Each structure stands twice: as structure tokens, then as C-alpha cells.
């Protein structure tokens, strides 16, 4: 009996294998995709693992021992986790508040929420840290100017919590507002007509329905907080986190092995969170209906509920808005904290310095964007629609790339591609690859989501009529998932332009990138110049995204379907 | 929202064009063939960024070599060169403390080259084998924010020992010796002044006074100028530069008991891709004209070329007492001392 099932299984596998081999384009695509994934995600990880265990030809645990026996290293791990938990709690709460206000409450300026949610995506990851220094530093506008506090301390844990919370709460907002909109209002209305108060409905119906979504958002934020590199570098002070320490130890002190051991521990922490998120929380869903909601929700308009929420939400929005406006303003201020007269000196300085990093970054991001977009859709297509050996491996590793912190990937690339058969360091190619690998997972995810909503019978029909896999993909699948494809493009461009953690290991004299240049300016204390660069980066991202949206709307896809 | 964006955009464009015009220099067409025509060169520069940019531009104009340059801190450059040992992408290391150059020489990362222009430079300012040659020297000192000191009724610390006073606890900023040649210079100075054992005891206490370790050696001084930090350790020529830039609250002093100094150097990276252009560069960097460039953009170090005129701004430091600095010893010990320092400061929990 068992023998029989095994035989059937093997037969089925041989059949899929044959199908794959019979379709040479499909076969080549699979081989290309699998080798990209292996070469640029799996091998670098193994190199890191190898380097953390090897010493003079033998296996050693000494680097791990060094981490766990030294109080300072243990403190760094504790710091990272403490920060991650705090930020994930705060940012999820604020995100929930925004999502709830947007889906349930009757109030104006809801479009503002969406605008606020997009800001962190189109700006460099440490931008809020920069403005936090301008606002709350020792010479900050608010601390010194408004409140007259002389010993304000923004560097450290408190500053990091503030900055990361403001940077990451939009993640929770986007996840939760999508979910809240899918809750069928009739469930809550039923509870209301049975006599429950607003508070009771909220506690006993809405929140339990949202619980998996909240957990999901919290874990996503935890992963991002733990992986965050820019903010701890800029505003961490002596509160060191693992992602920053990996860079400082690997490049600053040239202790590669120590850095790799630390990187492995960081990977374990975030992959653990990722697995809980994907396989445990992500699978649970209490969404009440599939498909369209029966009718629109009647929005809550009782002033005693709306007013306090509204005030809170507007205050937070103002704070975030101020942080983003401050940077363009900072680029015109002569010497922040000392001399507030307006000047163009910083712009002139940037022109003098050369706009090469600006052009290079844009060029490389423009090259990476279509490749990433298409590759992401191909992988989504292969994942959902095709059966072949290695599919599970492909799906898992591409998704894993989300959970691996950028610093770790950067370190892995240095170890893998500096010597050996494939030398890529110092080239533009390695930067484009870093852009691709870092922004692909989001595209894949939206591609998979889009494909799962489309009945495969349409594609099967094309197949039966004799279309090859390539034909099916280009003339049937891709047109149907256009919105996901274009969203992927927009997203991948924005992510590439703002990426810092991975590429800081990979830039060279020939290819320097904007985000890295900004970090260098901040480190030298040239806040004005850093502000100019940051402003330019935001402007470029905005222009290109608007361009993509414009072109896309000409192609007949509504620009509103393109989400970030 | 959209309108706001487009407005912002137009504004930005206009500014960029304006700023661009303001700094445009007339391009002079090369009439004669230059020695470096057709050559390319990749430079890792440890100088102040504006100084480095100016130097590259002048060098390109004078020799015709096409230069790609990136600025990093001294320690970062060293780490980069070491990481790229098998496949170097740069050929010149320009600026940054000689101590890091000495360690690089010991690890066989540098090419020996005795430039004809190096002959006039005193022997204590260059490597005997020509692995590196000094281009400037600068003195280490203490910087403070005048306002903060006044508000707290304190005086600027006059000696390195003054830094250990309880009122400065958590108020000192310095770069990390691992990433910055400035900070390693301080570490080596302290050890030379106090002896190894006493020196490390001092550093252990000093570590508790420190509020933040930055990556670049020049950052702490600027932070003091901005009022972000009250006290910093750094090079005094940088402090002069910041004062000139408009940080009026920045004051500085050289320690009474004497202080350390650095030699900024230039060297050729072993097996770098453009050795010929690299030699041209070293010759040029040692010339009177090249050395005098720095003072026009606020680099006020003393110069190594005896013919070059030192910047007037540096004259106020003329009377500084210097210790008898053993560069070779300090450079040879770099790895060991940094490891010891990290070991020591890491096992101590940083107090918040």
C-alpha cells in the first residue's frame, strides 16, 4: 500500500519534471531564478555562518563565546530586543489608532493619513532621526528654543524609540486599515442592536477580530526595528544595537569573524519572529467574509469618541509632518543651533562636491526597478501557478529575504564577492543586485496576493489552446496582475533609492550612493549638507513615482490601484 | 498636495541651477599634452571633504589624470584597503594619520615610493622606505563649548587629567580609536605620556566620562560647536576651521603638560590598478602648491614641505608643547592597543 503511494508520488514528480523539461523557456527561467536566489541569498548567508564558526581551518565556538561571555555584547543583544519590543508595542498602538480612525470614525482629513503613511517609504530611513536632532537635540528648536531645556538628551534609547515609532507606525497602519475595511459591519451592528455599548462592541467584537492582524503588524515592526541600521547610527549615541554593531565591528574595527557571529544571532532573532509571523499568526484569520463587504459601514460620529481620537491623531500627524518639513528647511539654514540665517551655501557645497552620487543612485535604481519588478512577478507566477522541483525552496528563500537584516546581507556580499570565482565588489552590478534582493520580496508578496484572486482557468485555457508558459505569462497573467506589477515597480524604486544598510558595505570610489553620502555628512556633523541631499532624494523619488503613475494611467490602469 | 509638490520641485530646480552657476569655473581647454592624459586614478581620501574635493580638482587640472575619490575616516580606509587586499580598487590613500599608515605598511598593504619631492621633507615626517610621506602635521587638543561652560560655571579643562573631573562625566565626545586615526592618536599620546599601565588606567576612567564615540575624528569638534556636546577631543586645526565657519561658541586649548600630534600622510596602495598615476599623485601632493591649497578651504595644519607657507591661522598654535612622539612604535602597537581598549571598554558596562 505504502509502496503504491510512493510509486504514484514518484510518477507524479516525474510527470511534473517532464512538463518542465518539455517547456525550455520555463526550464531556463526556473534555472535562472533558482541560481539568483542561491547565489545572492543562500550562499552569502552560508558564508557568514562559515566565517562565524571557522578559525584557522578548524571549527570554533570562540566568537559566540566572546559574545555571550562579555557583558557589553550581551547588553547589545538586550538593547536590540528591548528596543524592538518597545517600538513594536508603541508603533502598533499608534498604527491601530490611525487605522481605526480612518475606517470607523467620521472625520475629515483622512487623505492626510495616507499621505503620512507614504512618507517613510519615499524618504531615507534615518530622516526622522535627523529631524529629531534638529528638534529635540541640545540645541533643538523645541528643547532649547521653546522650552529652554539645556541638557536635553535625544541620543540613546528614548530618542531611538521616538524615531523608530514614528518611522514604523505607518507599517501597522497599512496592515491594519486593510483588515479593518474587510470586517463586515453587520457583525458589529448585530452586537449593537443586541444592546452592547460602543465600548463593548470595540472590546468584544472589533478587537478580537483584529487580534491576528495586530499580532502580525507588531511582528513586522519588530523585524524592522531590529534590522534598522540608519537610526541607531545617527541617534543611538551609546545605546548600540546589533545591526549597527555589525557594521562598526566588521568595518570599523575589522573584526569580521566577531561581526559574522553577531550577524548570525541577529538573523536567528529576526527569522524566528518572521516564522511566527508567517506560519503561525499569518495563517490565522478571522476575517468574516470573503469578497466584497455587503455594504458600507455607518461611521461613528459621537463627539465624545471622535474628538479625543481626532485630537490625538492630528497631533501625531503634525509631529510627523513637522519632522519631514524640517529637513528641507534645514537645508537652507546656515548653522543649525548657532546661526539661523538663510543661505544657499549647502546647495552650493553639494554642487561643488559633485552630483555624481545623486545621478549614480538614480541610474542604478532605475536599472534595478524593471528587473526587480519583472523578476518578482515571474517568481510570484512560478510560486502560485507552476509545480516544479525546488519550488518550496524558492518560495521560502525569497520570503526569507524580508527577514534577513540589510546589514547582514551587506556583510555576506563582502565575504562572498570580494574574492573567489565571482568578484563583484566595487562594481555597479553588486549595488543593483543589492537593490533587487532587498526590494523583491514586497513585489513577490503583492504578486502572489493578486494571482491568488484570479482563477487559474483563464491561464489554463490559454495553455490548452497551445500557448507556451512564456506566452501565458506575458499575454494572460501579466495583464491581469498589472496593478500589482506597477505597485511593485514604484515600491522597488523607492526602496532602492532609500536603501542604506546593505549598500554601506558595498559602495566604492567609483560608485557612491546618496544614502551613504548622507550618512557620511551626518557623521562629519554637516547637518545642512545632509539635509540638502535628503531633500534631493525625496524630490527624485517623488518625481519618478509620479512619472510611473502618469505613464501607467496612460496605459489604462487607475493610478489609485497602485499602492505602496 | 500635488500642487505643493510641483511648487517645491520647481523651487528646487531653480535653486540647483542657481547654485550651480554661482560656483561654475570657466573650463580651460588643455592646450598642451599633460603627463597624465588618459590615466585614471581612484583615491581614498581621509582629508576634510572640501579640502579633498579641491585637491582632486587641482590635480586633475594639472596632470590630466581622471580621479574618482571617496572620503572616509582613516580607520575605515585602512579596513577597506585590508578587505580589498586581493583585489584593490584604489591606488592612493591621501590624508589621515601616519599611525594607520604604519600599521598598513606592517601588513604589507602599501607600495614603497620615494618621490623626488620628498627629499626636502625632514626625516621624522616620512617613512624611511617611502611607504608613506607626510603632507601636514597637526596638534591634538581639548575643545569646549563656551556657553555650556559659562552656564555651568566651569572652565575649559587645561590638561588631560582635568577631563576626569566629575563635572565632565557624560559630557565628553571623542571618536572611536578603532575607526578614527584622530582618536587612536589620543590613545597613543596618553600611553606615551603616562606609560602603558597608567595610560590604560587613565583610559578606563576616561571611558566613563565619554558620552558618545563617533566614527570620524573631526565630528566631535563640530558637535561642540553646535552645542550638541560640551567637551571634545580633537585636532586643533579642525577647531580653528570650525570657529571660522561660524561656530562662535567653540573654544579650545592645547594641554599644558604637552600634547600629541599627527602627521597626515599620503601613500600608494600595493597592487592598486593605477600605479603610474599614483606616483604622479604623490609627487603632486608633496609640492608647495598642493600643500598650500588646504588653507584656502579651512585646513589649517602645519605643512611638511619646507618651501610651503603655513597658514596664518595656525600661528596661534606655534607655542604648543609637543611630546616626543614615537610614530613607528605607536603605529606598530595600533592593533594591540585598540584590541585592549575595546576589551577594556566593552567589559565595562557603559553607564547611561
What proportion strand of chain B?
15-25%
CATH superfamily of the largest domain in chain A: MetI-like
Overall tally of domains of chain B: 2
**Cα distance spanning the termini of chain B:** 43 Å
What pair of chains forms the biggest interface?
A: A-B, 63 and 71 residues
What's the gyration radius of chain B in Å? 21 Å
Strand tally of chain A: 4
Order of helices and strands of chain B: HEHEHEHEEHEHHEHEHEEHHEHH
The level of helicity of chain A is over 70%
> What about the largest sheet of chain A?
2 strands, antiparallel
CATH overall fold name of the largest domain in chain B: D-Maltodextrin-Binding Protein, domain 2
* Counted beta strands of chain B: 11
Strand-helix topology:
The complex is a heterodimer of chains A (564) and B (352).
Chain A: H1 2-22, H2 24-53, E1 54-55, E2 58-59, H3 62-69, H4 71-104, H5 110-122, H6 127-136, H7 141-146, H8 157-180, H9 185-193, H10 198-227, H11 230-235, H12 242-252, H13 256-281, H14 303-330, E3 333-335, E4 339-342, H15 345-353, H16 356-385, H17 391-403, H18 406-417, H19 428-452, H20 457-464, H21 469-480, H22 482-498, H23 514-523, H24 527-554
Antiparallel strand pairs in A: 1-2, 3-4
Helix pairs in contact in A: 2-13, 2-17, 2-18, 3-4, 3-13, 4-8, 4-10, 4-14, 5-8, 5-14, 6-14, 8-10, 9-10, 10-13, 12-13, 12-18, 13-18, 14-24, 15-24, 16-19, 16-22, 17-19, 19-22, 20-21, 22-24, 23-24
Chain B: H1 2-23, E1 40-45, H2 49-63, E2 66-71, H3 74-83, E3 92-97, H4 98-106, E4 110-111, E5 132-145, H5 146-151, E6 172-175, H6 181-194, H7 196-209, E7 210-214, H8 219-226, E8 231-235, H9 236-245, E9 250-253, E10 261-269, H10 275-285, H11 288-293, E11 302-303, H12 327-332, H13 334-347
Parallel strand pairs in B: 1-2, 1-3, 6-7, 6-8
Antiparallel strand pairs in B: 3-10, 4-10, 5-8, 5-9, 5-10, 5-11
Amino acid at each position: 500500500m505504502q509502496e503504491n503511494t510512493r510509486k504514484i508520488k514518484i510518477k507524479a514528480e516525474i510527470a511534473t519534471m517532464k512538463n518542465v523539461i518539455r517547456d525550455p523557456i520555463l526550464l531556463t527561467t526556473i534555472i535562472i531564478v533558482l541560481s539568483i536566489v542561491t547565489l545572492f541569498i543562500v550562499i552569502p548567508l552560508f558564508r557568514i555562518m562559515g566565517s562565524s564558526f571557522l578559525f584557522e581551518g578548524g571549527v570554533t565556538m570562540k566568537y559566540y563565546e566572546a559574545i555571550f561571555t562579555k557583558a557589553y555584547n550581551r547588553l547589545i543583544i538586550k538593547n536590540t530586543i528591548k528596543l524592538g519590543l518597545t517600538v513594536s508595542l508603541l508603533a502598533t498602538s499608534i498604527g491601530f489608532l490611525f487605522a481605526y480612525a480612518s475606517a470607523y470614525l467620521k472625520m475629515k482629513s483622512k487623505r492626510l493619513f495616507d499621505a503620512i503613511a507614504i512618507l517613510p517609504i519615499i524618504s531615507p530611513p534615518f530622516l526622522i532621526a535627523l529631524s529629531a536632532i534638529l528638534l529635540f537635540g541640545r540645541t533643538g528648536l523645541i528643547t532649547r528654543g521653546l522650552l529652554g531645556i539645556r541638557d536635553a538628551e535625544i541620543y540613546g534609547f528614548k530618542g531611538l524609540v521616538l524615531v523608530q515609532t514614528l518611522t514604523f507606525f505607518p507599517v501597522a497602519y497599512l496592515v491594519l486599515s486593510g483588515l479593518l475595511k474587510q470586517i463586515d459591519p453587520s457583525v458589529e451592528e448585530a452586537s449593537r442592536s443586541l444592546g452592547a455599548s460602543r465600548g463593548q462592541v470595540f472590546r468584544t467584537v472589533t478587537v478580537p477580530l483584529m487580534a491576528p492582524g495586530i499580532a502580525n503588524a507588531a511582528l513586522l515592526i519588530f523585524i524592522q526595528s531590529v534590522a534598522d541600521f540608519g537610526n541607531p547610527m545617527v541617534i543611538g549615541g551609546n545605546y548600540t544595537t546589533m545591526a549597527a554593531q555589525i557594521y562598526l565591528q566588521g568595518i570599523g574595527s575589522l573584526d569580521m569573524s566577531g561581526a559574522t557571529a553577531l550577524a548570525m544571532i541577529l538573523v536567528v532573532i529576526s527569522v524566528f519572529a518572521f516564522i511566527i509571523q508567517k506560519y503561525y499568526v499569518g495563517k490565522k484569520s478571522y476575517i468574516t467574509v470573503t469578497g466584497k463587504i455587503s455594504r458600507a459601514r455607518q461611521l461613528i460620529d459621537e463627539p465624545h469618541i471622535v474628538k479625543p481620537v481626532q485630537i490625538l491623531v492630528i497631533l501625531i500627524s503634525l509631529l510627523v509632518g513637522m519632522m519631514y518639513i524640517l529637513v528641507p528647511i534645514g537645508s537652507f539654514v546656515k548653522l543649525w543651533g548657532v546661526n539661523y540665517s538663510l543661505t544657499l551655501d549647502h546647495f552650493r557645497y553639494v554642487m561643488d562636491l559633485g552630483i555624481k552620487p545623486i545621478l549614480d543612485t538614480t541610474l542604478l535604481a532605475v536599472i534595478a526597478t524593471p528587473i526587480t519588478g519583472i523578476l518578482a512577478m515571474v517568481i510570484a507566477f512560478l510560486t502560485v501557478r507552476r509545480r516544479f522541483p525546488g519550488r518550496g525552496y524558492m518560495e521560502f528563500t525569497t520570503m526569507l529575504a524580508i527577514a534577513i537584516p540589510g546589514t547582514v546581507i551587506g556583510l555576506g556580499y563582502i565575504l562572498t564577492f570580494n574574492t573567489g570565482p565571482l568578484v563583484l565588489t566595487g562594481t555597479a552590478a553588486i549595488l543593483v543586485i543589492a537593490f533587487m534582493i532587498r526590494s523583491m520580496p514586497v513585489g513577490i508578496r503583492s504578486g502572489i496576493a493578486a494571482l491568488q484572486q484570479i482563477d487559474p482557468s483563464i491561464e489554463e485555457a490559454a495553455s490548452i489552446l497551445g500557448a507556451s508558459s512564456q506566452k501565458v505569462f506575458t499575454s494572460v497573467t501579466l495583464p491581469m496582475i498589472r496593478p500589482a506589477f506597477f505597485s511593485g515597480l514604484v515600491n522597488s524604486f523607492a526602496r532602492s533609492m532609500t536603501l542604506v544598510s546593505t549598500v554601506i558595505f558595498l559602495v566604492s570610489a567609483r560608485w557612491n550612493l546618496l544614502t551613504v553620502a548622507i550618512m557620511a555628512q551626518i557623521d562629519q556633523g554637516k547637518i545642512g549638507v545632509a539635509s540638502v541631499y535628503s531633500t534631493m532624494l525625496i524630490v527624485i523619488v517623488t518625481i519618478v513615482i509620479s512619472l510611473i503613475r502618469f505613464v501607467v494611467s496612460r496605459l489604462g490602469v487607475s493610478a489609485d490601484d497602485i499602492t505602496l | 498636495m500635488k500642487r505643493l509638490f510641483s511648487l517645491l520641485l520647481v523651487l528646487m530646480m531653480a535653486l540647483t541651477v542657481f547654485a550651480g552657476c554661482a560656483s561654475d569655473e570657466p573650463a580651460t581647454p588643455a592646450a598642451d599634452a599633460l603627463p597624465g592624459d588618459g590615466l585614471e586614478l581612484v583615491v581614498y581620501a581621509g582629508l576634510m571633504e572640501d579640502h579633498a574635493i579641491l585637491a582632486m580638482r587641482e590635480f586633475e587640472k594639472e596632470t590630466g589624470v581622471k580621479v574618482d575619490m571617496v572620503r572616509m575616516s582613516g580607520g575605515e580606509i585602512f579596513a577597506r584597503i585590508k578587505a580589498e587586499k586581493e583585489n584593490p580598487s584604489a591606488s592612493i590613500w591621501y590624508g589621515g594619520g601616519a599611525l594607520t599608515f604604519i600599521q598598513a605598511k606592517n601588513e604589507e598593504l602599501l607600495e614603497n615610493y620615494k618621490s623626488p619631492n620628498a627629499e626636502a621633507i625632514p626625516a621624522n615626517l616620512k617613512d624611511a622606505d617611502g611607504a608613506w610621506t607626510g603632507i601636514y602635521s597637526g596638534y591634538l587638543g581639548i575643545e569646549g563649548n563656551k556657553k555650556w561652560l559659562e552656564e555651568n560655571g566651569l572652565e575649559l579643562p587645561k590638561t588631560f587629567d582635568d577631563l576626569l573631573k566629575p563635572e565632565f562625566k557624560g559630557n565628553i565626545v571623542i571618536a572611536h580609536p578603532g575607526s578614527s586615526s584622530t582618536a587612536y592618536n589620543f590613545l597613543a599620546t596618553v600611553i606615551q605620556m603616562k606609560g602603558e599601565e597608567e595610560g590604560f588606567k587613565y583610559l578606563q576612567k576616561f571611558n566613563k566620562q565619554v558620552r558618545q564615540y563617533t566614527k570620524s575624528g573631526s565630528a566631535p569638534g563640530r558637535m561642540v560647536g553646535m552645542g550638541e556636546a560640551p567637551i571634545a577631543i580633537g585636532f586643533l586645526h579642525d577647531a580653528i576651521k570650525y570657529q571660522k565657519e561660524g561656530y562662535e561658541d567653540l573654544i579650545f586649548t592645547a594641554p599644558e603638560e604637552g600634547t600629541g600630534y599627527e602627521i597626515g600622510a599620503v601613500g600608494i596602495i600595493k597592487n592598486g590598478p593605477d600605479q603610474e598615476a599614483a606616483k604622479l599623485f604623490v609627487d603632486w601632493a608633496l609640492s608647495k602648491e598642493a600643500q598650500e591649497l588646504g588653507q584656502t578651504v579651512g585646513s589649517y595644519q602645519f605643512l611638511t614641505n619646507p618651501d610651503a607657507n603655513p597658514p596664518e591661522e595656525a600661528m596661534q598654535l606655534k607655542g604648543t608643547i609637543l611630546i616626543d612622539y614615537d610614530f613607528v612604535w605607536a603605529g606598530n602597537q595600533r592593533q594591540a592597543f585598540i584590541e585592549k581598549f575595546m576589551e577594556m571598554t566593552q567589559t565595562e558596562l557603559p553607564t547611561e
